[in-house]
Amino acid sequence: MENFNFKVETNILFGKGQVSKLPNVLNEFGKNVLLVYGGGSIKRNGLYDTIQELLGKDFNLFELSGVEPNPRVSTVRKGAELCREHHIDVCLAVGGGSTIDCTKAIAAATFYQGDPWDFTSDSRLVTQALPIVTILTIAATGSEMNGGSVLTNADTKEKLSFGSRKVVPKVSILDPTYTFSVPNYQTLAGSSDILSHLFENYFNKTTDTMVQDGIAEGLMRTVYHYTPIALENPENYDARANLMWASSLALNGLTGSGKSGIWSCHGMEHELSAYYDITHGIGLAIITPRWMKHILSEKTAERFAEFGHRVFDLEKDTNPMKTAEKAIELTYQTFKEWGVPMTLGEVGIDNKLLDEMAEQTVKHKELTTEAYVSLEKEDVLAIFEASLKEMTF
Ligand code: NZQ
Ligand code: ZN
User: Fold this and answer.
1) Could you tell me the distance, in angstroms and rounded to a whole number, from the CA of residue 57 to the centre of ligand 2?
2) CA–CA distance, 231 with 335 (Å, rounded to integer)
3) Of the N and C termini of the chain, which has fewer Cβ atoms inside 10 Å?
4) Helix, strand, coil % in the chain, rounded to nearest 5
């Protein structure tokens, strides 16, 4: 295990009805609130009205609506302008990862003289940020309990991230009932994103991290257990609650601390999203099993076999390669059974830009030197090409 600092300052208010504490929570920071939200799901499910009722009288509520899935840096610029103009004291992000990520960038950009896109090339430019409170409405990214933010620059077709302790939410309200209205496609995307965060940390060069890996295996089992229940019955409270808490714990440092290296599937997926504006979690589900198959070797077989044994209850074979192959097959088949579109063609991506996206992937991420298994541009291209057709086992 490697050295690490672990500090998550987010106060989590979990469970039904916790939103009633919102006025007290915000009072700690001030009266001028910027409410940030997406394309309107919070209006349709009643959360917007609840917030107005709770805050309408005692707070000066300003709004930034229309945050895009794959949030644009142009929206961040608008938000920062609003914060400066109205002397905002606290940002309230209500939505999913896109809304929360956008809010993080707004909170930091308010104090930055240059353009917020600069943060993606140097996170140290984030020197100050407005306090952030979130109300999460979809279980997926973990953004509600971490300092990461992923932004899209539509002009340059880039999707890049920054990370800073300054933008870790102060308080996050996690009420699983707000995720009842999440459509199945987004539930699938959310679950595959949670799994991917766990996989990216689990398949890692650093060995002897049983604490982190045991937590990750437990969270993976949770996601595999509850996703079909949530798909079948979107208002199953316990399924939604378990998925929600899993999303936060999968990416708050618990399973990644003490390890090093660069994530492979996220690097590749962010190029697909940047070029084709696809849903992050769906892109991950498509790429992940192809990546697993591509990097499977005598060296990695033991690890994949362990994953299959602990997460899918596969019997340990004397030949780890066999168990490993079965585990990868199950990873693929499970996504398929859940209803994830599992080829690039199904999400509108053909072979035209694969080469360019592979080039950009290795330009943006040090996958050659820092990945679990080194990936050159040719490897990334092979994974993209394999994603065009169904997998066979
Ligand atoms: O915009 P609205 O109308 O709210 O609709 C959203 C959006 O269309 C909808 N939705 C969310 N909650 C809902 C709901 N619809 C009905 N009922 C509800 N309760 O779902 C759609 C997707 O929302 P989005 O916020 O984009 O989803 P998600 O949470 O998956 O966030 C994805 C973004 O986060 C980034 C991704 O790259 C992507 O840009 N990530 C952020 C990370 C982080 N900050 O740590 C890590 C991740 O790996 C990821 O890269
Ligand atoms: Zn992700």
Assistant:
1) 38
2) 12
3) C
4) 55, 10, 35
Sorted by sequence, the CB contacts under 8 Å of residue 355 that are 6+ apart come out as: 381
Ligand 1 closest atom vs CA 197: 48
Q: Is the CB of 98 under 6 A from ligand 1?
A: yes
Contacts of 126 (CB under 8 A, 6+ apart): 108, 112, 119, 162, 164, 166, 167
CB of 101 within 6 A of ligand 1: the answer is: yes
**Alpha carbon 56 to chain centroid distance?**
31
Per-residue pLDDT band for 316 (boundaries 50, 70, 90) equals confident
Encode pLDDT of 33-45 as tens digits: 999 999 999 999 9
For residues 365-380, average pLDDT? 96
Pocket of ligand 1 contains residue 344 by CB under 6 Å: no
The ligand whose atoms approach the alpha carbon of 96 most closely is 1
**Residue 135 and residue 100: Cα distance in Å, rounded?**
9
* Domains of the chain listed by start with CATH number: 11-179 (3.40.50.1970), 184-386 (1.20.1090.10)
Summarize the confidence of residues 245-268 as an average pLDDT: 97
Arithmetic mean of pLDDT, 132-137: 98
Contacts of 56 (CB under 8 A, 6+ apart): none
Would you put residue 37 in left (φ > 0), alpha (ψ -120 to 50) or beta? beta
| Percent of the chain topping pLDDT 90 | 99
pLDDT at 105 over 90: yes
pLDDT interval class at 314 (50, 70, 90)? very high
How many Cβ atoms sit within 10 Å of the Cβ of residue 6?
Answer: 10
